[in-house]
Structure formats: C-alpha cells, structure tokens
Amino acid sequence: MKAVVWHDVGDIRLDEVDDPRVQEPTDAVIRITRSAICGTDLHMERGTMPDMVEGTVLGHEAVGVVEEVGSAVRGFTPGDRVVVTSTIGCGTCSYCRAGYFAQCDTANPNGPAAGTCFFGGPRPTGPINGLQAEFARIPHAMTTLVRVPDGVSDDQAILLSDIFPTAWFGARLAEVGSGDTVLVLGAGVVGQFAIASAKRQGAGRVIVVDGIASRLDKARAQNAETVNFNEEDPVEIVRELTGGIGPDRVIEAVGVDAEQPGERTSEQWKPGDAPRLALDWAVELAAKAGSIGIIGVYPPGFDDFPIGQAMNKNLTLRMGNCNHRRYLPRLLNMVLTGSMDPTAFITRHEKPTSAIDAYRSFDLREDGWLKTVLDVA
Ligand SMILES: [Zn+2]
C-alpha cells in the first residue's frame, strides 16, 4: 500500500510499504477513506517532537471501513464505517475507565509510565504506524474505533478523529462555564473548534488572537472578537476589551513552535531565545484566579514557563493530550443532529499523492491551508 513515511527531519516520503495485518486479537484493520494533516504532524516533520523512528507511517486522523477484525473484537463487522480516535486506550485499565484514555496503562508498548500512545508518533508513544495510508492496523479496536452513523459523511467525521475532541477538551480544561469571557490563542483549525466548543459550553464572549487575517475572518464568522497580533499589541487590546480585568478562561491552541515554521528544532531550542510564546500571553492576560487550558503541543523537555507569575495570580492550569474516546461519541451526535457542521473548516482536499507538497504548504502557513483532508478513497 501507499503511505506517508517519516525518514528523517525534513524528509518525509510517499512510499510503498507492506499492508498492515491483525496482530493481536483486539486489533482491527481498516481501509482508510479519509485522512488529514494535523499541526502535530509538522512537529515530527520539523523535529520539534524528537525521537521519531525511521519508517514510521505518519498521521493520526482517519475515517475508514473495517476490513478485518481480531477474534476478541465483538462490536464491529467488516464493512462498518468508522472514525479512529487519535490516541489509543485499552478501555479496560483504571485510567481508561476513569476517562483518561490518553494515559492508558496498557496501550503504550513502552509500558504504563510511558504516557500517551497515539498513531504516527515518536518512539515514546509506541511507535504505532499512523493513518496517512491506504490501510491501518487499529490496536484496541473496541475503544479506538467509533461507528459513524449513516447521517454523518466522511468529511464531517474526519474532523472528529482529533480536532473537534481536542478543542472540546481544551474548553473543558479551561473550565469554561456559563457567561464566561474566553480567550482563544490561535485561530488554526483547533482554535476554530475551540471557539465553537467554548460557545457550546456556555461562554458569554469569545476573543481570539492570531496573526493570519484569513483565520481571523473564519473566527469572526463564528462571532468571535478578533485580534491580529501582527497589527496590534494583543496584551493591550485584550485588556481593553475586558475592562482591564482579562479573560476568565484561556484556551492555548498554539503550542511551542507555531511562530517559526521550519527554523527551530528541539536540539537548537534554548530557553530565552524563543519569540513570545502564546503561553506567556495566556498567563499575562488571564484574569486573577482565572484558568488556562493548554492543548497546544509542548514536547517533553520544554521547561520554560512563567510559574511565578501564574502562582501570584492564583491561576488554575490544566493541560494534556486529549482523551478522544471520552468526547467523540457525544460530538458525533452533535454533528448528526446538525448542531455543528465540521466541514465548514476544511479548506483543502488533496489526493494522497500530493501529501508531501501539502505538508510544505501547511508548514509555510500559505493562505487558505487551515485544514487539509486527504481523499484516500
Ligand atoms: Zn487503558
């Protein structure tokens, strides 16, 4: 089959690789119909997320059709349409049963202390071959796959694989509640869904900061109040918009290296040499006793955080990798009932044969590359 394969930092290729097969009784194999390129994939491509293993298939978002199930998989039949959760949980351990699927004790081959297991990630996450491919092996299929109802299209379902659950989780982490003034940092596709999630979790106002006009246009279409950091000082403007108090809740949907595409790797990065991080804005801007939910990606080893300022403002900080399985079924239902249409945020459809060029355009933040879906079949 064809798959997008990681060879080295800056070297990803569309390769011919072996078809995956069922290896464990709890596995399934799916034929992929839609995949997508995520901002997280750029971290592997650039090297900001270190320790990738050569030959790993990239990608952690997919919709497909079940081809084959292992003997222990009782809920799926070949031919079922499914969406894949980006993070993998067994569904049985105490963490999964408490809803912390991204901290499953069983799924990660590196052991219970290794943390989140996800598709197409670096060595400490598995590695588990990813989903930018024609077929994929799905470990723990009973929790990692969710059946897609007939009323939901592949294009709607693909954004439920990672993006919408992550944004929803971000709003939950930030403790968004009734009437809150919410600041969303970053108007990429996760930021867009964070705006939608905050509003559906009760936000009274949503302010969004980004530096790309077309993204801010999309945010304004959701009735968010927009601030362009390339044209004005976001700290000053957000303070002004909130009567000098700051937002009650902040969702950080940017992460470590969003400002310097292709220029910095984890080896080169040193505290103090970064441009201003969105995280610094989050701490500086949050109202006293406010709360921050961090869903932007920070690699292990990143340790530059203004803890003193956060402490002295009595801030609440929550963060982590999304427990996709916890939210996906109910978000799927929101799409089915028409209260949310994710396809409004897909700006590109590409053939898998264009995947490598698509990575480049996305990395350069070319206008209109908000979210690229790969039409595999
Ligand atoms: Zn588990």
Structure description:
This protein folds into two domains: 2-162 and 323-375, Quinone Oxidoreductase, Chain A, domain 1, CATH 3.90.180.10; 166-319, Rossmann fold (3-Layer(aba) Sandwich). Residues 260-275 have low confidence and may be disordered. Strand 8 (181-185), helix 6 (189-200) and strand 9 (205-210) form a beta-alpha-beta unit. With 377 residues, it is α/β, with parallel strands linked by helices. The chain has twelve helices and 15 strands. Helix 5 crosses helix 6 and helix 5 (163-173) crosses helix 11. The structure holds zinc ion (ZN).
Describe this structure in a few short sentences.
InterPro entries: ADH-like_C, ADH-like_N, ADH_Zn_CS, ER, GroES-like_sf, NAD(P)-bd_dom_sf. With 377 residues, this protein is α/β, with parallel strands linked by helices. Helices cover 26% and strands 20% of the residues.
Secondary structure layout plus pairing:
Blueprint: E1 2-8, E2 11-16, E3 28-37, H1 39-46, E4 62-69, E5 81-84, H2 94-97, E6 135-138, H3 141-144, E7 145-147, H4 154-158, H5 163-173, E8 181-185, H6 189-200, E9 205-210, H7 213-221, E10 225-228, H8 234-241, E11 249-252, H9 278-285, E12 291-294, H10 307-312, E13 316-319, H11 324-336, E14 348-350, H12 355-363, E15 372-375
Parallel strand pairs: 8-9, 8-11, 9-10, 11-12, 12-13, 14-15
Antiparallel strand pairs: 1-2, 3-4, 3-6, 3-15, 4-5, 5-7
Residues 89-90, 92-93, 95-96, 104-107 line the site of zinc ion.
